[in-house]
């Protein structure tokens, strides 16, 4: 609690200065400094709305889930527990002037989504809820329990862009929280308001820019399968070789079936001619010789 | 003479054994391909919509080739035992034709398995799931098939999208056109369901609170059965063909050595 020590130091300084009759300085140090310090506290705790760790799908195309501001505002600002919190959202603009949420009399802006064109022209009020209980925040481990999860989620976070119907419903009277635009940067701010007096007591800084998602077209998805797998190359190459060998073997066996009989005959041919010659000699020897008359007739 | 007689007998015995094995493998191939064609996992509509269903064509060819192998093996056994040259010649020629068909089936199954990538299924899911205005009857048929298959896949396997629920958030889709992002960041089938078939906690599911939505992708549930299918047809067919190659060469040799 370094703030308290700072306050004490300033008070002591004020007392010392009081001795020198610098009354305005004393008043300044006693009243303004605590205010400054509490503002420092606010800055130190949280700069604005945070994205909760619990919701993994955040931000989506048109919604952003934010943690509610637990223990962000000083409860002493609301003596009768009459405070409520407003959430303002706006698109991130370069223009700092139009990002005021209060008017000159510290009354909050009553702008809607429709009036500001979805946060384009300035901040719009996105939500209204009671101050979260700092003393007993919801236990995040209860999220695992099916019966308690709805309550835990409702107490712990708020989803900007949740209500799709309120823009088009003419009977809707509450604070409209329509879906945000995709691929756009938004900033959020929590404002503490006293409901009886209707004036702004405290506000956080504008949050870090949070951008909603953008979508890619499915046409752009590349369905090319890449290089051929090893399986396919092995199967194709080996089967091609086997088919080639089979065809070669078939041709070889068919041609050998045609050529083989001729080979047999040609190998047997010399023996065949010798056989015929021997046979003719035997026949010639066995048959009786007869002399031939000049006129060719036998005797 | 006795030595070559023994040799012939051994060759005959080997060829008969080879043909018996071919016959049994033929029946097994037919049974396996009938199993794949019957699509027990219900994934055929996804392939039909991508127009990449040639792994099923390979299985159909496998059914007929298996039966042909069984019939031809019987013819081969009869031809070898009787040493009839005509029968053996018919056997060899028909076996060569069957060999060619089976080779086509194996190569088709192996090649078309390569086309089934996650991106293919992702693109088809985004373009067809719950598409509201189909162009024609064919488109309508495919859209209904894809929608029913994805719904069944997501419910039975407790998964969402191809790589994860972020597929629905990262890409534009036909689903996104009819369902707004605030209520349906992803289909409600991605939520953890209770016994009655409704989401346990819809807010938790929409926000992405762990335990209330299915964070894993369905690609494993699709590619597992597809891989089994393709590799079963391709590699078993390849094994049969290697064995048949040896038996056919032996039969050609035997045929060239027998006499009419």
Automatic annotation (TrEMBL), chain A:
Listed under GO cellular component are:
plasma membrane
Which GO terms fall under biological process for this protein? Answer: urea transport; water transport
Give the signal peptide range. 1-19
| Alphabetical keyword list | Membrane, Signal, Transmembrane, Transmembrane helix
UniProt-listed InterPro entries: Uroplakin-3
In which domain of life is the source organism classified?
Answer: Eukaryota
The record lists the membrane-crossing segments as: 28-47, 233-260
Asked whether the UniProt record includes Transmembrane helix among its keywords, one would answer yes
PANTHER family recorded = UROPLAKIN III, UROPLAKIN-3A
Q: Give the protein name, as stated in the record.
A: Uroplakin 3A
Organism expressing this protein natively: Strix occidentalis caurina (northern spotted owl)
From TrEMBL, chain B:
Q: Which UniProt keywords apply?
A: Membrane, Transmembrane, Transmembrane helix
The record, for CDD domains, names:
uroplakin_I_like_LEL
The protein's superkingdom reads: Eukaryota
What are its GO cellular component terms? Answer: membrane
UniProt xrefs under SUPFAM superfamilies:
Tetraspanin (SSF48652)
Q: What is its main location?
A: membrane
Q: Give the InterPro entries listed for this entry.
A: Tetraspanin/Peripherin, Tetraspanin_animals, Tetraspanin_EC2_sf
Stated family? Belongs to the tetraspanin (TM4SF) family.
The name under which this protein is listed is Tetraspanin
Q: Look up and give the organism this protein is from.
A: Strix occidentalis caurina (northern spotted owl)
- Which lineage ranks, top first, belong to the organism behind this chain? Eukaryota, Metazoa, Chordata, Craniata, Vertebrata
């Amino acid at each position: 609690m370094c703030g308290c020590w700072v306050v004490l130091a300033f008070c002591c300084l004020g007392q010392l200065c009081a001795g020198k009759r610098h009354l305005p300085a004393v008043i300044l140090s006693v009243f303004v400094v605590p205010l400054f310090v509490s503002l420092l506290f606010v800055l130190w705790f949280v700069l604005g709305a945070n994205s909760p760790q619990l919701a993994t799908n955040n931000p989506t195309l048109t919604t952003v889930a934010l943690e509610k501001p637990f223990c962000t505002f000083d409860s002493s600002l609301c003596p009768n527990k009459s405070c409520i919190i407003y959430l303002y959202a706006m698109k991130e603009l370069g223009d700092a002037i139009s990002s005021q949420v209060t008017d000159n009399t510290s009354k909050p802006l009553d702008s809607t989504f429709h009036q500001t064109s979805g946060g384009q022209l300035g901040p719009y009020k996105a939500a209204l809820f009671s101050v979260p209980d700092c003393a007993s925040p919801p236990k995040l481990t209860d999220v695992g329990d099916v019966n308690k999860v709805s309550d835990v989620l409702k107490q712990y976070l708020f989803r900007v862009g949740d209500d799709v119907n309120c823009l088009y419903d003419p009977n809707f009277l509450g604070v409209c929280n329509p879906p945000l635009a995709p691929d756009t940067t938004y900033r959020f701010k929590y404002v503490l308001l006293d409901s009886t007096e209707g004036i702004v007591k405290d506000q956080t800084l504008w949050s870090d820019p949070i951008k909603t998602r953008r979508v890619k077209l499915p046409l752009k998805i590349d369905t090319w399968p890449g290089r051929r797998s090893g399986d396919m190359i092995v199967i194709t190459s080996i089967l091609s070789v086997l088919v080639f060998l089979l065809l070669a073997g078939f041709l070889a066996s068919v041609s050998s079936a045609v050529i083989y009989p001729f080979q047999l005959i040609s190998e047997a041919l010399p023996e065949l001619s010798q056989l015929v010659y021997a046979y003719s000699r035997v026949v010639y020897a066995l048959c009786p010789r007869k002399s031939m008359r000049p006129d060719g007739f036998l005797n | 003479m006795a030595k070559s007689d023994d040799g012939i007998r051994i060759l005959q015995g080997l060829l008969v054994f080879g043909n018996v094995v071919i016959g049994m493998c033929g029946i097994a191939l037919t049974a396996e391909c009938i199993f794949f064609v019957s699509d027990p996992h219900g994934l055929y509509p996804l392939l039909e919509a991508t127009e990449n269903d040639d792994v099923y064509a390979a299985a159909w060819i496998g059914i007929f080739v298996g039966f042909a192998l069984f019939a031809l093996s019987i013819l081969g056994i009869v031809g070898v035992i009787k040493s009839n040259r005509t029968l053996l010649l018919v056997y060899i020629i028909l076996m060569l034709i069957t060999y060619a068909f089976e080779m086509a089936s194996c190569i088709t199954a192996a090649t078309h398995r390569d086309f089934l990538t996650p991106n293919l299924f992702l693109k088809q899911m985004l373009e067809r799931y719950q598409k509201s205005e189909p162009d024609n009857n064919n488109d309508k048929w495919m859209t209904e098939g894809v929608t029913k298959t994805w719904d069944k896949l997501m419910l039975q396997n407790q998964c969402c999208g191809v790589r994860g629920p972020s597929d629905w958030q990262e890409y534009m889709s036909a689903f996104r056109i009819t369902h707004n992002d605030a209520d349906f960041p992803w289909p409600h089938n991605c939520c953890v369901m209770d016994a009655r078939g409704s989401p346990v906690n819809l807010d938790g599911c929409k926000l992405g609170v762990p335990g209330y939505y299915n964070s894993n992708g369905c690609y494993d549930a699709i590619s597992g059965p597809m891989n089994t299918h393709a590799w079963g047809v391709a590699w078993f067919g390849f094994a049969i063909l290697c064995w048949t190659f040896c038996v056919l060469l032996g039969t050609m040799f035997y045929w060239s050595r027998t006499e009419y």
